[in-house]
Amino acid sequence: MDRTLRLALGSIAVGVAVFGLKYLAFAVTGSVALYSDALESIINVATAVAAFFAVRLSAVPPDDNHPYGHHKAEYLSAVTEGVLIIIAALAILREAYFGYLDPHPLDAAVEGLAINALASVINAGWCLVLFRYGRRWHSPALVADARHLWTDVVTSGGVIVGVALVAITGYTRLDSIIAALVALNILWSGWKLMRESIGGLMDEAPPPEVVNRVKEVISTHAAGALEAHDVRTRHAGRLTFIQFHLVVPGAMTVAESHALCDRIEAALHRDIEDSVITIHVEPEEKAKHPGGVPVL
Questions:
Q1: Which of 15, 145, 171, 215 could staple 45 via S-S, CB 3.0–4.6 A?
Q2: Which CATH superfamily is domain 208-286 in?
Q3: What are the residue boundaries of the Cation efflux protein cytoplasmic domain, all occurrences included (predicted)?
């Protein structure tokens, strides 16, 4: 099984375990805030399943209908996660509203908080794993899953502190207020996730540091060429697509220009993992900056 698939499958197992613990914490205490935390964990499981199938589909080799591969399937998964996060937040707001109107005292607060804290520790550990390997392997689905889990970890920490204050002060409406704050934070997280995923679907350029690095590598290894211009980059799942025009002297043979392109491609592959490179060779009269070798 592919390494990314194994992580996505692991997210499902972790999500189920964490949901079980958080729901147990809610059942023990009756806390609306802990209920909101448990409800978000249901979304964790659903999004982990979506990420698993998206990663699996993105790994399918190119075919006649999809000659550039299926890598953007991971962005669709991330958009789905954003929608589910927003739905969960609205459901939590509803429960917080009714809980505020009719507050109830908490039962077994210490036991419930201890169970919830254990679930949060598990979530935090898995979140770090997903962040590390999702970024290393350029997997939007895994990174999206990690960001959602991190939101869950942060909000769980706030919930634990808030529920502890409810138990100490006896102000039961604070439980519903905390749940509403959790929901608003989840809404913001869902919006940011959807914005980034839509950017990927729209062929948004990689971060400026990646674009600048691409230009630097081309410039460093383009000895023999006159210039490189119209450098364009975009992300599609774990792949980085790079294309540019390379202007060479008119006397350069096809074999020599091909060897030059191979040298630049090899350097880019070493520096930019999972890159797909297209170089259009042009004669010297196509140069946009005669006399120089700039990379534009």
A1: 15
A2: Cation efflux protein, cytoplasmic domain (3.30.70.1350)
A3: 206-284
Quote the crossing angle between the two packed helices 32-58 and 3-29, to the nearest 10°: 170
The model's pTM is 0.58
In the chain, what are the domain boundaries?
Answer: 3-201, 208-286
Residue 32 CB contacts under 8 Å (≥ 6 apart), including other chains:
95, 96, 99, 175, 176, 179
Homologous superfamily of the 3-201 domain (CATH): Cation efflux protein transmembrane domain (1.20.1510.10)
Residue stretches of the chain with pLDDT short of 70 = 1-2, 4, 51, 54-55, 58-59, 70-75, 77-78, 140-141, 193, 196, 199-201, 203, 237-238, 290-296
Query: The tokens 């509203």 sit on which residue?
Result: 97
What counts of helices (H) and strands (E) characterise the chain?
Answer: 8, 3
Sheet of strand 227-236, all strands in order from the earlier edge strand to the far edge: 227-236, 239-247, 275-282
Task: Say if strands 239-247 and 227-236 run parallel, antiparallel, or are unpaired.
Answer: antiparallel
Separation of alpha carbons 142 and 146, rounded Å: 6
Report the percent of the chain where pLDDT is more than 90. 19
